């Protein structure tokens, strides 16, 4: 092979982000929904609906993981995976989902809270701070990957 | 020896014969396809043998194991072995046109549409577990036989309509197939959770139902993930083709 394939930055980021979202959702779903049983996805009076919403979240997270994995495997096969963007996308996906979950789903839509206790503030802060931290690390990795790419092309 | 054994051993023998004929003519047909077809047929013969059917009759967990293998895992093997493609390679070409004509007929297209297949497959499960049909099935061997065949055929139809490798003109788009697969995953997982929580079917002991529902949730999901991967793989391969500069084909 004389000229190696041009890396696909967008596709690598997309695949890694999907994997990150799926991974974070799996952690949320497995630890908080199933093992600890703190909350369902949609808390309503009807437990049938709450269970169905858990089923939906679970399926979404699985599908994200599988699509991310399929794209990533293919990019490895064609040699188009962009170096450094994989970990950046993964952390961005994880942090982005955590923050989206903590702010939009918990607070704006109020579908469920993290735990049904009197003082929620600590849980909310810990939840969103984790998300923000992951997002920031992901952003740092993204900048580093961009810089490395620019240096390599010179 | 029962009807199931007869049918599936005949199918496996036919497939092997077709594979062997291709080998003889030096037209290669992948060995892994032969392997998954025969394994699937063997699995069907085992789970539908009298001792296992007895177990399935008395114990809900047994029923679930038989159902998962006969309705989800074995159809995956049968369909992914592309039996129609192999058959068409072994017969005169005019049969290829006949096959295309047959699957292009409106009734055939309606029946093999992913939505129809999903309703037959998942709808059948909702009917079986959420109504009295389950208790009724235990008392009537005829109904039980019908339900077993329904699971096998509906499972094959669903797998085929979602990710089947056999030739089918004017297949619904990848997006629609993906949507249907997603919907069926959600409804399958939800049914398993409801069965666990609300003790369905109520005619069986609760521990058996809960363990059976867990099996249904986890094993079912594993098979669905394989289907999702196969479907997404088709899309990804056309979206990101291997560039030609790596190999020269003339």
Fraction of residues in helix of chain A: over 70%
> What best-fitting shape of chain B do the alpha-carbon axes yield?
globular
Query: Taking all residues together, what is the mean pLDDT of chain B?
Result: 91
Oligomer: heterodimer
Low-confidence stretches of chain B: none
The biggest sheet of chain A amounts to: none
- The level of helicity of chain B is over 70%
Q: Class by helix and strand content of chain B?
A: mainly alpha
Gap between N and C termini of chain A? 21 Å
- The SSE order of chain A reads HHHH
How would you state the average pLDDT of chain A, rounded?
Answer: 83
Please provide the count of β strands of chain B: 0
Kindly give the count of domains of chain B: 1
Biggest protein-protein contact in the assembly: A-B, 28 and 24 residues
Total beta-strand segments of chain A: 0
Q: Pairing-aware structural class of the strands and helices of chain A? A: mainly alpha
Distance between the ends of chain B: 53 Å
Instruction: Give me the Rg of chain B, rounded.
Output: 20 Å
What does this structure look like?
The complex is a heterodimer of chains A (154) and B (250). Chain A has helices spanning 9-35, 47-78, 85-108, 121-153. By secondary structure, chain A is mainly alpha-helical. Chain A has one domain. The relative contact order of chain A is 0.18. Chain B has 250 residues and is mostly helical. Chain B has one domain (3-243). In chain B, α2 (31-47) runs antiparallel to α4 and α3 packs across α4. The longest helix of chain B is centred in the last third of the chain and has 34 residues, at 206-239. Chain B is globular and about 55 Å long. The A-B interface holds A 1-3, 5, 8, 11, 47-48, 51-52, 54-56, 58-59, 62-63, 66-67, 69-71, 74-75, 77-80 and B 182, 185-186, 189-190, 193-194, 197-198, 221, 224-225, 228-229, 232-233, 236-237, 240-243, 245-246.
